[in-house]
Amino acid sequence: MKINISSDHFLIKKSEFNDLFKIMKICFFLLFVFVFQMMATNIEAQDAVINLESNTVNVRMLISEIEKQTDYLVVYSNREVNTSREVTLKKKSDKVSEYLHQTFNGTDIGYEFENNYIVLSRKAQETASILTGLTQTAQQLGKTVKGSVTDSNGEPIIGATIVLKGDATRGTVTDIDGNYSIPNIKDNDVLQITYVGMKAQEVNTSGRSTINVIMEADIELLDEVVVVGYGTMKKSDLTGAIATIDGDKLAQRNATQLSTALQGAIPGLMVTRSNSEPGATANIKIRGITTIGDSDPLVIVDGVPGDINMIHSKDIESITVLKDAASASIYGSRAAAGVIVISTKRAKSNVLSLNYDFNYGMEIPTSQPKNVGIQRYLEMANELRYNDNPNGGEYQEYTQEQVNNWVDMNLTDPDTYPITDWRELLIRNYAPRQSHTLSLSGGNNFVKTRASLNYDDIDGLLTVNNINYKRYIATVNNDFTFNKYLNASFDFNVKRTESYEPSQTNIWYMIRAYSPAYAWKWSHGGLADVKGGNNPYGRVKEGGSNQGWFTKLGGRLAINFTPIEGLKFSAVASPNYSISKTKIFNLQAGYTGSDNPSNVIGYFQDHTSTSLSERRYDNNDLTTQFLLTYDKKLKRHGLNFLAGNENYSYFYENLSASRDLYELKEFPYLSIGPRTLIDNGGNAHEIAYRSFFGRFAYSYANKYLFQANYRYDGSSRFHRDFRWGGFPSISLGWVLSEENFIKNINFENLSFLKLRASYGTLGNERIGNYPYQALIDFTHSLFYDNPSSTDATYHNGAAQIQYAIKDLSWETTKSYDIGLDAVFFNNKMSITADYYRKETNDMLLDLKIPGYVGFANPQQNTGKMFTKGFDFEATWRDEIGDFRYSISANLSDFVSEMGDLGGTQFIGNKVKFEGSEFNEWYGYLSDGLFLSQEDIDNSATLNSNVTVGDVKFLDISGPDGEPDGLISSEYDRVLLGGSLPRFMFGGTITGGYKDFDISMAFQGVGKQNVRITSGMATAMPGNWGHIPAILDNDYWSSFNTEEENAKARYPRLTYVNGSSNLYMSDFWMFNGRYFRMKNLTVGYTLPVTLTQKVNISRLRFYISGNDLFCLSKYPTGWDPERGDSSYPITSSLLFGININF
Amino acid sequence: MKKYVVFILLTIFSLYSCNELDLSPLDQGSSENWYSSETQFEMAINDFYRLAFWYYTPTPHDHQQWSDDYTCRNNRTVFTSGTFNSETGFVKTFWNNQYKSIGRAIKVIENLERGRENGISDTKLKQYEAEARFTLASRYAYLTFAFGDIPLVKGQIDIDEAYSMSRTPKEEVIDYIYENFDFAIENLPKEYSKKMRATKGAALALKARYALYFGDYGIAAEAAEDCMELGIYSLNPDYAELFVTKNAEESIFLLPRSLENNIYETVRNAIPRTGNGGWTAVNPSWALLASYECTDGLPVDESPLFNPRNPFENRDPRCTATIVEFGTTLLGVEFDPHPDKKQVMDYNSGKMVKNNDTRANATYASFNGLNWRKGIDETWGPSTSYQMSNDFVSIRYADVLLIYAEAKTELNQIDESVISAINQVRARAYGVNENDKQQYPAIEIMSQSDLRKKIRNERRVEFAYEGLRYNDLIRWRIAGETLSRPQPGLLHPASLLREEVVNPGLWFWAYTPQIDENGIADFSELLNNNKAQVLSQGDWDDRQYLWPIPDEEIIINDNMVQNPGY
């Protein structure tokens, strides 16, 4: 048979990888060639002309020539077709259809063209039954039942077995379109339909002659195969703590970034974000935090280290999270913070399919902080000035007349009495986004291909010079089977993102914090200054752009050799290239005076000159792997063995250049700029690892499970004498439900019960690139080169910056886990629960050394840290008639405590020192506000400027261990509780009724100590800004009654003491728990009977909403996840369509 | 097909070779192999001359704003609000930067032997050591002046040693400072024909400065005298010109700045608003304006020549060289804060334009009506993105003369050499020779206390805007006297100013401020009669005469004790 797709793929070999655009082109080309072939062959190939050497051929030769010279595969059964029969043909060159006609005319063999196949079969059977492994019984009276078998996505199932219940000899299998036909069926005969991996079905034929069957994936959980480190395992054989999620569930969340889609989806995964800016990603932590350094998990994509944000959620088959050491330690060196293993979709069957998904929607800000109205602004501004300078009187900022009449005066003289709402001016109510996904898959027994192209285009919320983010991801996954010994896969992916944003970076702060009493535009139309050039509108609109282009190319070639059954040798090479460029073209932008629109009288802050700053950076990495696996089942003994070697190298380099004082604003290129104020730079680094690892797994009677892993890693980050670390782990599993004593209890509702326990160690070394070396950094100084010179000359300086500690080595995390998996009610309900403890030793710490040592804090193997927590997940799924539904919920929690840190302390508002939690709040204890002068006179104060209405901090201690009458940061601050989220939960509810489907996901945090930040509660930030609305009527004021002041939540209005009032203290803390509706999707699939008429196998419409609402105690206008001065968190509302051909 | 597969397998195996794990930095050196050539030593030494080590704060203007010469609208500094403490950011930066430089100087000294082994000449090595010791002395002088007792690190220390260290008494640190200055004085060249680095004169001048600061008047006088006797420094004939001149002869030790080389300061706060789009946020204080003598050598409250209606009239020329006289031109635009001056002349465009330097037109125009002139040259403004590249002059010859005069006065050794030193500075202000005593208000020999008063005021007016006034307030211990006073400014809004001051004909000052024994002006008459307003009320805390040790140093080291009061 001919391989009909592969020829195109060799194009990749011919191409040169160093040319990005060529690659892009090829990728698109591939996609289109693929489509083209699917469409084109059907129409044209019957008329294809082939040439024969002789007029006389036998049938086998003819078939072989057809396959050789056309794209057709000829499908037939040797039992039916006599291939050695010779035929004499009229011409040496003719159409395929003509040859077939001549060959089979008058025989009992018919031929049909089906997609790329020519099917030869006995004419007696009306429709092709290709593989007639089952005997047809003699003709009997009865009807013929026809129909098709498809999966739940509407894709035809080939080779599904359909037999008559009670007579297994009568039956057939479906053809390549999923069609079947069985003759001689009597009423009330029952058909049994089975297919591997699908739930078996029985259908009564009573009164029906067309029966279309939709097969559902077998949700028999325990036979599910999950991806683990360097391989797969049956879920029932697992002994470690592993969680998986199906790619389709993530895709349904319609999040642009995979990292944000994972929020609340998996227990033990903490996903945090601070904004919804187009392109923003989230931060992922697995099972808490085990080190002060980098705690990001390792991400493995199709077996090699990758980038989670490089994968589109619609390309994902499944995600597995390896949570405990036993599962993760096969990745030893970099697995201390857990491993996320991602498998991308591959072509599963030989069926060609094309799937197109489109959605369009909008991003709507959830809630935004409000400020007081203009009248209160003027009054409160005056009050603040009075508080800070009582000698200056009550009307220091605005006169009494202005305060009383501002709004009226604004109508006649808006230039002098402006009222500006920066939010309304700069943020629009919604931003559009759209997303397209096109995926194609298909193949034959030798080659299978899946290709997909995703395109996302998201706008930002600005009204001018708007943010935009575009992303293209193309992937092609190919699987080749050469023979029963050898197979290979070749994957290739390209990701490109293009981002555009204003060069002004302070936008969200300005919108929230700037005073309303400034005009953004004069009445003559020219832009106003806003306090000497701070105009947010002008700075955003005219300040220029910051653009980025990021391109990543990745590939993976794997060759598997299976000399004997169960033994497999694999070689994998996977390179990745990343090329990025950014261009910040910051424009000079000026403002006019209120008297003259044409005369620029000054320039906006940050935009006083036009400058261009460009940056290029590229990095590449290469992973190579050699794996040997052996899998053997001997009666009741199961054996699995893995040995491997992995090499990884990474190189990074960047180049930057800039010029300033451009005269022209039209040409964002370096050569146009003047030669003064030129700057450029470049740097580079590299990292390499080498690893050897092995796994041994043994099971007895599916009852007792044992697994051991070992990994031996070397890292370039350490000195050669301290480079290597070994990371072992063992785990045990006991399937109680297989034990007779459990079976004897005869508790029917319990389908499965397994206990697991594991122990292992993992390593971490992500601490800068050359930590053991005493680095010399290059600096620059200026000198006059001679006594009469007036032009300074640049000279390089050099200085040791790092205190070198040579015996630096691996930080290790020991991890203990016990867990259980249980399944009840005939697989309807399943529970997984785990409890774990982790202990990090020899933690690589940025050791805080006294400043007088003169070097930057060195890294040192010192410090311990303890983490404990649990993960819990429960799922229920069932169907009642046509209504099918599932509910799953998860809950997890952890606490990370610091042990002995070798004397190091990390002090700030959040601290890490012995006995504290990781990033525990640290600050003063408060006793509310000072309400009387007497109270101040009798209390310790932070400084001599403290007056009534300020926050009262308590004097806890002093240099002698006793309160010393002073409030000082050294002695009076105490631990105030952990700052990390506790009791994180998430869940999904899905349901379907006939053609409707619905799914809902939620997520939240059960408890979290958070504070009112200075951004939320500072009146007039920068001494001229706006005043947050939450303060109004709730702060200490000399205009209040004593009762009102006693109830005040916020201190007096002050700038001078404003920051000391906002020092971290329990005064500002509250419980930041929240519940968020992550996603709600409702879909409707058109009946197949309708869509099939236009050759569409499935057509689904859906509406999807993300982050629809959130319940929390945050001050009005603040989203629990939003940063102080960041882009808002948004809800998205999407309308989508999904078409399958 | 099989051949093809074998080929692929072979290719993959041939690709496999153990990857290199012994990686060295690609863009950085390593001290393991540094300090072995002249170039490497020179580069290590170049690093000593970075502005970050010679500033008190990341931006030098902050340092100047701490004194009573400055106002910044109605703002207060951490000193005048009393909120200065061990968490204050610039204290940490200052501490760390100073010790960083010390560590690097020690590294050079400890590697000299290695240099010798690599064939570097003894002369060169002596020069390197002298520059390193000059750095050590300067850094410790900065530190001990700010903090008092400090950890004294003389050689490279390991981490355990570091944790066990405590604060060395100030006296011991000062001895070490003199010792290092003396080595530098001994071994540094007088002048350079090429790259201009620290000289003998620089070491002498800085030694004199800090000896004066530490009250060692004998040492100060001697070092200043030695510096004067080198005979290579002179006063620039034109006072105003000096501050816009690069590499001026008067500069004894300076660090250049350069726009082209990306070393500059942003000065938008000091530029008027009209025409050039500045912010006029930091302004000379009224107290500074009041401190200039009249041309008769008398303070404003004693001189018949003083006219509060025109405070720029008949004043020491340094007054108008430092503060913009109303109605004169700065950066091509007329400057006048008068509320009725609605338009001013913009000579750059040749047109009358809206006057944005009066609060009648612009809310954030100078709050006290004054604007800096000293050091502002024609390049300041939008054409250079409000960046300036004037030299950072650490010490100039006029300072050495006044150090000599002050030290000798404190020693009560008042003689003609002392009077001459002061008169040289005063005469230069008037652009005349010291001996033309008719041309300027020369001083004569007088009592110690009178002369002390003269010298203190001389320093204030001579060095305004150069960052020295704050140090002087600290060492004379009069910071509390002056920084806790109310900061006066023009009445606002303009209607009030017109009603109270302009219409009765009392612009600019209604009354002459009174000067007290410390040379500090008292504006209470203006304030009490509602002819001026309090922009901000100072609140000095005496603990601030010593800076707090950064809190982290105390938290990680039990042997570190905080300065009193924090």
Outline the biggest β-sheet of chain B. 2 strands, antiparallel
Low-confidence stretches of chain B: none
Work out the helix count of chain B.
22
Strand content of chain B: 5-15%
Rg of chain B from C-alpha positions? 27 Å
Give the fraction of residues assigned to helices of chain B.
40-55%
Please tell me the overall pLDDT of chain A.
85
Indicate the percent of residues in helices of chain A: 10-25%
Shape descriptor of chain B reads: globular
Report on the biggest sheet of chain A: 22 strands, antiparallel, barrel
Alpha-beta content class of chain B: mainly alpha
Give the CA-based shape of chain A.
globular
Spatial arrangement of strands, main beta sheet of chain B: 2-5
Report low-confidence residues of chain A grouped into runs of 5 or more: 1-44, 124-140
Beta-strand share of residues of chain A: 35-45%
Greatest interface:
A-B, 120 and 125 residues
- The rounded distance between the terminal residues' Cα atoms of chain B is 83 Å
Q: What would the average pLDDT of chain B be, to the nearest integer? A: 91
Output the structural class of chain A: mainly beta
Number of strands of chain B: 15
What does the radius of gyration of chain A come to?
Answer: 35 Å
Topology:
The complex is a heterodimer of chains A (1141) and B (566).
Chain A (H helix, E strand, L loop, with lengths): L5 H9 L5 H25 L4 E3 L4 E3 H11 L3 E3 L10 E3 L4 E3 H9 L4 E6 L2 E6 L20 E9 L9 E4 L2 E7 L5 E7 L4 E5 L6 E4 L8 E3 L9 E4 L2 E4 L7 E5 H6 L5 H4 L7 E4 L10 E4 L11 E4 L2 E2 L10 E7 L2 H4 L10 E6 L8 E13 L8 H15 L11 H13 L9 H5 L4 E13 L3 E13 L8 E14 L4 E17 L4 H7 L22 H7 L1 E18 L5 E20 L3 E4 L2 E8 L6 E25 L2 E26 L15 E23 L3 E12 L8 E12 L4 H6 L4 E15 L10 E10 L7 E9 L10 E14 L4 E13 L2 E3 L12 E3 L3 E16 L2 E16 L11 E2 L8 E5 L1 E4 L3 H5 L13 E3 L19 E6 L3 E12 L2 E12 L1 E3 L2 H4 L24 H6 L10 H4 L7 E3 L2 E12 L2 H4 L6 E9 L3 E3 L17 E11 L1
Parallel strand pairs in A: 3-7, 8-14, 20-23
Antiparallel strand pairs in A: 1-5, 2-4, 6-7, 8-11, 9-10, 9-12, 12-13, 15-16, 17-22, 18-19, 20-21, 22-23, 24-25, 24-59, 25-26, 26-27, 27-28, 28-29, 29-30, 30-33, 31-32, 33-34, 34-35, 35-36, 36-37, 37-38, 38-41, 39-40, 41-42, 42-45, 43-44, 45-46, 46-52, 47-48, 48-51, 49-50, 52-53, 53-56, 54-55, 56-57, ...
Chain B lengths: L1 H14 L13 E2 L7 H9 L4 H4 L5 H6 L4 E3 L16 H22 L1 H6 L4 H26 L11 H6 L5 H18 L12 H14 L3 H13 L9 H4 L8 E5 L9 E2 L15 E3 L1 H6 L26 H5 L6 E2 L2 E2 L8 E4 L4 E4 L32 E2 L3 E5 H14 L5 H14 L18 H15 L6 H7 L3 H5 L2 E4 L4 H9 L11 E2 L5 E2 L1 H5 L4 E5 L13 H6 L10
Antiparallel strand pairs in B: 2-5, 3-11, 4-10, 6-7, 8-9, 12-15, 13-14
Helix pairs in contact in B: 2-7, 5-7, 7-9, 7-10, 9-10, 10-11, 10-15, 11-15, 15-16, 15-17
